[in-house]
Amino acid sequence: LIKAFGVSPDAFLQMAIHLTKYWDQERFVLTYESASARFYKNFRTETLRPSPMNLLPINNLSACAMHSKRNEEAMTSQGIDRHLFVLYLLSQGLFISSPFLDHYIIPNVTNQINEDDEIWKSWIGACFGAVTPRGYVCSRFGGNHSIFANVMNYKSTENAVG
């Protein structure tokens, strides 16, 4: 099915996750996906932020194309999250107020981190647990004719099934 649409398997699955969340909860959610900046000299990672706002049923293929484009940009170190995070850290260390960075970083990056070590359990698919009580973790990997997916959340997650 994925090959029939001619889109990236990663993009297809990311958009499927977003659509599922939207159909279930009637809202889009912030996601984080690590993209290896493999063309970068020191092999760092960059944050890939899928764009659910483009994700209306009529735009699924264009949303997949946008996701693939952003992934390519992140792999070639053209992402912005890491750069903004460094600027935020500098502003905090130098006691410089930045309303933009405070607005961007605090809700989008730092509040996703949970210090509870109990959640960091992995499974054979190299998945970590949800990092916030309101969040989920979706991991997946596929073979030639199958996709294995795992979705986890805190027991206390609002509107969670299971």
How is this structure best described in words?
- GO terms for molecular function: carnitine O-palmitoyltransferase activity.
- This is Carn_acyltransf domain-containing protein.
- Belongs to the carnitine/choline acetyltransferase family.
- InterPro entries: Carn_acyl_trans (IPR000542), CAT-like_dom_sf (IPR023213), Cho/carn_acyl_trans (IPR039551).
- Pfam families: Carn_acyltransf.
- With 162 residues, this protein is α+β, with helices and mostly antiparallel strands.
- The chain folds into three domains: 1-79, Chloramphenicol acetyltransferase-like domain (Chloramphenicol Acetyltransferase), CATH 3.30.559.10; 82-112; 115-162, no CATH class.
- It is 37% helix and 14% strand.
- The protein contains five helices and four strands; from the N terminus they run ααββαααββ.
- It has helices at 2-5, 9-25, 60-75, 81-93, 99-108; strands at 33-36, 45-48, 136-142, 147-153.
- The strands form two sheets. It has a two-stranded antiparallel ribbon with strand order 1-2.
- Strand 3 (136-142) and strand 4 form a beta hairpin.
- Helix 2 (9-25) packs across helix 3 (60-75) and helix 4 (81-93) crosses helix 5.
- The radius of gyration is 17 Å and the shape is globular.
- The two termini are 28 Å apart.
Characterize the quaternary organization of these chains.
single chain
Query: Which class of secondary structure composition applies to the elements?
Result: alpha+beta
Count the strands? 4
In what order do the strands lie side by side in the largest sheet? Answer: 1-2
Shape: globular
| CATH homologous superfamily heading of the largest domain | Chloramphenicol acetyltransferase-like domain
Number of domains: 3
How many whole angstroms does the radius of gyration measure?
Answer: 17 Å
Mean model confidence by pLDDT: 66
Which blocks of ≥5 consecutive residues have pLDDT under 50? Answer: 108-125
Q: Which fold name fills CATH's third level, the topology of the largest domain?
A: Chloramphenicol Acetyltransferase
- Kindly report how far apart the N and C termini lie: 28 Å
